[in-house]
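In response to a reviewer's request, we include the raw inputs and outputs for one of the modeled complexes. The two entities were modeled together in a single run.
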Amino acid sequence: MEPNIPERTEAFLGYVRGTLYITVFYLALFTISLAIMALDVDGTLAPAVTRFMFPLVPVLMVIGVALNARQRKGFRFSKGDPAVRAVLDDEQRRQAFSKAFKAAFIVTLLSQFPLAALFMLRPIMRLAMGSNPLALGPVFMGAFTLVIGAGSLICFFLHFDRE
Amino acid sequence: MPEGELKTTLKVQRAMRDLTQADLAALIGVTRKSINAIETGKMVPSTILALKLSKALQVPVEGLFSLSNPA
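The model returned the following structure tokens for the whole complex.
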């Protein structure tokens, strides 16, 4: 047994989990921005979101990556590293991912009903406000489906993978 | 205990060899969480993992795992 492998494995595990938490945070930010743009029927909030939120994302991303790098505890990891292989081939994590995938699939499927109802209402709301009822419903619905699917998959995985 | 539930002596066998969960995990190439999940009965290991554990601890698989009420 090589020295340090348990410590390196724990460090890599912490780093991977940290990366997933950061991804969930960005997905949440993206979802909020998307929701504001999709539901802003009179078009007053959406330009503000574009102006402030999107330039902020790269800055937050750099801060998140820098903070998460501390989880590595100074170790460098390569693909063939036994610690990396142990985490990637770990059976408990595979089982957790399998459970998370099933749960996320159900959530994404069920989310289609409220999303469809919401985006059917959107053109009607825009008409009522006197603005152009652009047919962006399917585009927003697709985008929401993607973020809900990815977000719920990562959240369920983090939940099932906890100790 | 429900019929056919998996029982394990992994914790005892590991302690007899003075190995920590992390040491055993490193020996067979998994994370400490997997060893913990097997010991606490939260996870049923695959055949491959059971054989790896058996080889690492030099105990037959039947000595490591058994069914609570075999049919």
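As requested, we also summarize the result in words. Chain B has a mean pLDDT of 90. Residues 6-61 of chain B form a domain with the 434 Repressor (Amino-terminal Domain) fold (CATH 1.10.260.40).
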